[in-house]
Amino acid sequence: MSISLHVICPDGHNLRHLGNFVYETGRWTVSEDTARRVTRVHIHEKQQGPAYQGGDVMSWRADPEGTGRFYFTYRASQNAKIHCPGNWAQELAIIRREDH
Fold first, then answer.
1. What is the enclosing helix (H) or strand (E) of 75?
2. For 28-63, what is the HEC assignment?
3. Which of 53, 37, 40, 51 is nearest to 82 (CA)?
4. CA–CA gap between residue 18 and residue 29 (Å, rounded)
5. pLDDT tens over the chain, length 100 residues
6. pLDDT at residue 97, as a whole number
7. 84 with 93: CB under 8 angstroms?
8. What is each CA distance from 67 to 71, 77, 79, in whole angstroms?
9. How far is CA 17 from each of CA 20, 68, 85, 89, 94, rounded to the nearest angstrom?
10. CB 5, CB 23: distance < 8 Å
């Protein structure tokens, strides 16, 4: 099972551009098992409306402060600008997909 992670990140707050269409998200609270399964990230201004950015996850890392939060590095792509197909939990939605 793979996971698409939809997050609220207004005005690119805590979003780092690493160059060559590669970005790193801010810290998000998910389990390590969930972090391991995230294959796509979608960045939204608000819950309503499509993501303004997102793409395929290249890597992830735990917060070095041991907070139980994770950063995700992804390569931006145009086809990531979608509406969240699931339910939001405050600023985060975890969408599980069956792998075929």
1. strand 69-76
2. EECCHHHHHHEEEEEEECCCCCCCCEEEEEEEEEEC
3. 51
4. 22
5. 899 999 999 998 899 999 999 999 999 999 999 999 999 999 999 999 999 999 999 999 999 999 999 999 999 999 999 999 999 998 999 999 887 5
6. 86
7. yes
8. 11, 29, 32
9. 8, 23, 26, 26, 23
10. no
Give me the amino acid identity at 80: A
The DSSP-derived string for 1-18 is -EEEEEEE-GGGTT-EEE
Positive or negative, the CA dihedral 42, 62, 16, 22 is negative
Amino acid type, 68: G
For position 100, what pLDDT does the model report?
A: 53
